[in-house]
Amino acid sequence: MKEGALPLGNNFSMRSDLGTMKILHLKKRGCFLLKLLCLVVLMLIFCEFLVYYVVILQCHWPEVKIEALRSSRQSSASVLKAMFLSDTHLLGEIKGHWLDKLRREWQMERAFQTALSLLEPDIVFILGDVFDEGKWSSSQAWADDVRRFQKMFRHPVRTELMVVVGNHDIGFHYEMTPYKLKRFAKVFNFTSGKLIIRKGVNFVMVNSVALDGDGCTICSRAEAKLMKLSHKLNCSQQQEQNHSNKRCNGMEQLPASEPILLQHYPLYRRSDAECIGEDSALPEEKNIPFKEKYDVLSREASQKLLWWFHPRLILSGHTHSACEVLHNGKIPEISVPSFSWRNRNNPSFIMGSITPTDFSLYKCFLPLESRVVTIYCIAGALLGVLILAHLQLFNPPFYFAQHLIRKHKAV
């Protein structure tokens, strides 16, 4: 053996120790990366799946007053459970950035599917502006938008889905054409003045875009259908009260329940100045006057609907914000906020327990986007601290305190 050379056994032992240390180091690093991956996956599962269950589980169907029911035999089975949402605004190919489209559609799909599984409504109504670019979209773009809508808002057989037309689906009055209206009607089986009867409850679906009052062909047909339907409903109520009317002879007998109007445009109101609540319009927007036939229906059209139908409740959308208005001192109108996080930080939908003689409403809020973003930011910061600490580029306060104690003892 040469002078100064290490024994062969010691050299092998050192190599073995180095190999063991290297393996331990790789295992430690792999274990750390696995932990980070698990934390990221858990964060994604909570923010993209579980958060909808956590929030919507807090919602419940409102109770209908027992004294309002016609007889004690009526049970919960006779109460119609209806969901109302509005202004989903699925983005199209013109304005919709792919990332924005992907994010918003994922949020709405998860919220809707979670609500269906937890709440099990009998029927769901969407109050217009299903699409953002329906008024512009080509046939191919329309077909793609419809396909995505049907995937997002799929529903079990036990739940019906009804859709009211909005200005973004067929255009404002000056953009509306028979072609756009027909393709919407073909997909959603919608006609203005359509009567939906479920468990003795009358819902009237209105094409509010066509109530411009200028005598256009579409407008005239829409008004004629509404007038004919109002006559049928009024005759049914008179027959129920044993009031004879020659004009009602031979008329089809409908449930005598006062109807609920479903439409996109709200009835006329000056502004949102009187609207309150956390999901009402922003303070700087509340006092902006509404434009008739654009933001709300005209005074004339609003009075026609109230006079024709004498509804017990009106539900509308369009403004993207919540509002409750009382018409003629007794008829409530609920403006349903947008269901899309692109339009609001706090989307919501309305849950209604409805019988032929009474109704009760409850608003179910969806997760705040700002809160979800905050969770992501906090989780990202914690992950960053853990990575820096692992790389020994950052000493957490605990280790810094230990270092100070050791230094003090050494002195």
Structure explained in plain terms:
The structure is a single chain. Strands 4-5-6-7-9-8 form a 6-stranded mixed sheet, with helices on one face. A 5-stranded mixed sheet has the order 3-2-1-10-11, with no helix packed on it. The model has no long low-confidence stretch (mean pLDDT 88). Helix content is 43%, strand content 13%. It is elongated. It is α/β, with parallel strands linked by helices and 411 residues long. The two termini are 47 Å apart.
Distance separating the two termini = 47 Å
* Share of residues in helices: 40-55%
Largest sheet: 6 strands, mixed
Query: Helix and strand succession?
Result: HEHEHEHHEEHEHHEEEEEHH
Beta content: 5-15%
Number of strands: 11
Outline? elongated
| Tally of alpha and pi helices | 10
Mean pLDDT: 88
Topology:
Elements: H1 8-56, E1 80-85, H2 98-119, E2 123-126, H3 139-152, E3 160-163, H4 167-170, H5 178-188, E4 194-198, E5 201-205, H6 217-240, E6 260-262, H7 283-286, H8 299-309, E7 313-316, E8 323-327, E9 331-335, E10 348-354, E11 359-365, H9 369-390, H10 397-410
Parallel strand pairs: 1-2, 2-3, 5-6, 6-7, 7-9
Antiparallel strand pairs: 1-10, 4-5, 8-9, 10-11
Helix pairs in contact: 1-2, 1-9
Write a short abstract of this structure:
The protein has 411 residues and is of the alpha/beta class.
List keywords for this structure.
single chain, 411 residues, alpha/beta, 6-stranded mixed sheet, 5-stranded mixed sheet, 10 helices
